[in-house]
């Protein structure tokens, strides 16, 4: 036999160099069923491809070794893949057992299935809208032809109309995402068609096997699959999942108990692991709600796993979601038919000590939120937006247990509270968080009475708790010491006001007024909210518990502290302070209060003009605060007081007033009809005191614009004439001459369109004033040059109105 080397169509430098493997000639073509090209037949090249048994697993063929040899006589480079195959064989033999048993064929099938699913999804989402748009376009076209055959040749963009309808329909269900989602999956994923469900389960199993192979490698994918379980089948679990519950429950339990050292060593990896475990807790809670009987066999194992998990969860805010979902699962168990899980001796006390108290206790993150973002802290603490925080959910767990074990919880909670208070008493400076924890427990476990206006507590006696625990915090001399304790005491007072006797509560009013001056935004906000609640309290017969005789002695210090509180950083627009300031407990009292101030200012300053400056120094800051915060109820009074101060001033007024005058010229200031009379009086005061300022910087044009706006409406036309008459009376003719034509046009248009008796009277007064100030010639000439003036028609309209 001779050895033959044949040329190949590839350059030798592109091939791997290896010791040559020689074949005997004549070469035999053996490709095991594959077609052979004429090139290889003509040159007698032998190819051989065969499966190698050592690479076969006991289930499937996952690898196939191909031995190839090709050579050419005289070519210095010889191609031989035997060495590469030998290396691959050795690598396989030395691989760990999980690599050999891993279902590589199944992985390939999943990958191909994912690609096909993606392709089908693209086709579906491209073709379905086109089909819908085409159908709607044809339907709308045919319908309009039936209604009106004249539209047959009209160039109407039916396709655009159809597209608009589609997008409108797509936007409409946005308000009902859960219902739409549930209906979608009930329609397109029926229980009898398990193809999607099988793929979902297989994909999960695939990633589980990858995770077994390389610990933590598939955790992100497992998170997505576990979350999709909750979102897709929320409240509507198909029978398929009931039939495969054992498989799912086994995997879920494994996720809760598995430790991933490689991932948990970094904060990002720990976050992914916590997300996976949180998703599992949500899923098993869903099972508890929907399939509580079927879940009973797995309950003890999961409860133990969640219990252990909570014992190891960090107190860091990054782990809050995991802690919250785990506690929610225990809460769901406590209120379900499986509540007997908590009946064991010492279980409830251990829950209180191991879960409730550690999660209710304040953390550094809570203190930072209290100081840096008081608005968010108040929304969580006072307005109830903390439903998904560890503090709130821990108390909800205790409430859930009390649903079936109220007697036990009633015995345990007072002991816990007393222990916390004793710890505080032993070291008030170091253990102040224990007292805060005790107060928060009482507040969070409170229940609303019938009607929802007041609260009560089934676990402590409110009055017995209030006097020794809350009152010392409220009567503390330093309102800035331990501000979070002060805030907790104010919340307690605000919540349990109905159970605090009036004499005791009334004694604390001066202390509440002091807290308005606390530096903490949360503390003075809580003080304002507490005062608001107390001032609105009504006893039987709708009688106010605290009447004007109770409040009047404290009114000066109350108003002073309230306005001073708005000077603190970030409290200039404090909604809780303004809400208290805007209490309409007694509108008549508010009216007479401002009337009294106005009378005092007018009488005192008329007798002694030197008092104007002291009054301005004391009143202007409060009035400016009302304007800046847009206190609707007090705006008319503020404008009237400002008008009075401007009227009392000499013609040269302070620059502060001119800033207020700029505010008058803004159209938005005139949108509220209730403010118009007071604004007109203030504008008249400026026109009378500083007419030379009005004619500068285009201000007169804005004043004429205000007149035009007012006179065009029958409800405000008389106020427009007040402004116009003041302009005519205080400004020279040369200043107003450019605007006279516009004024007559506005008046005559109104005469033609909507001439009323009130308008005619005001018009006659204006014409008389114009006549006296500038003479009959100016009156006639300016009227004749007006485009809207028609002597016969306008006079006829006026006469008809008067008759």
Automatic annotation (TrEMBL):
Residues 532-579, 585-785 form the Exportin-2 C-terminal domain. GO terms for biological process: protein export from nucleus; protein import into nucleus. GO terms for molecular function: nuclear export signal receptor activity; small GTPase binding. Residues 229-531 form the Exportin-2 central domain. GO terms for cellular component: cytosol; nuclear envelope. Coiled coil: none annotated. This is Uncharacterized protein.
